[in-house]
Write a structure and sequence with these properties.
alpha+beta, three-stranded antiparallel β-sheet, Serine hydrolase, Beta-lactam_cat, Beta-lactam/transpept-like, hydrolase
Length: about 300
Amino acid sequence: MRKDRRRASPGLPSGRRSSAPHDSETFKRGFVSLTKLALSGVQITASALDVASEKVLFSIDDHLSVPTASLGKVLLLIEVAARLTQRDISAHGLLDRTVVDSAADTGLWQHLQVPTLPIADLAVLVGSSSDNLATNVLLRHIGLDAVRARGESLGLHRTFLLDKVRDFRGPDDAPHFSVGSARELATLFRNLAEGSIVDVATSQQVLAWLGLGSDLSMVASAFGLDPLSHVHSDHGLLLVNKTGSGDGIRSEVGVLRGPRASVAYAITMRFNDAELTGRLAVLDGMRTLGTDILEYVY
């Protein structure tokens, strides 16, 4: 009978919900909100995991590999951090920006006068402002193949960094910067929080870079944190996240620690971005899910 209902309503997200131990209604609002968005044509993949128990708290088509905008930069930061903590000589030194590396939109380096920066500083720029120019310079130095190999070693089968950042994608370029599954991304951040990505030092370094992130416009908009300063616990909450934005795409992956529990989450929304109302509805749905996550951990 469930299969028959699924065929009759193909737009309905195939979600699973499991309530928090202290509130049987937790995640109900997010599920209802995202179901309405799915019925309006928004394509959704989402996953939320309890960090301690790995229990699936919320899930919508989390196995699907979909475009994730800038989320693939996390894989690059993992490779850079691993080389730094393992004292690899390739992780040290200064890197120059070139015309080939240029990419508009996000980031600060394109607005700065300094043409050369240390590798670790470039990672700070990527973690804090999702800097496209810094991403491309690091990728040119580290190599896309090395990032892919690192992802494979971490057991990622549906989450990949496919290309450098490009202002325009031609027919010979990868169709997207990165793709990923919500379940793999949520699990990746759960493992970062537990210190099991490569090793504890590498995991902590990646979390330190991403903890500088200033985009709290999506799921994290529900947490009440200062976008420009949340590296320390605030009202018992500690957040590390990474967002991604593109034409008709909003993505976020993160881990939120609270007084009662910790949750690792990932969500990607693909939608018709022709009207502002559609984008605002997507952001509102992401915030509703964030409210549920906050309720679970606080």
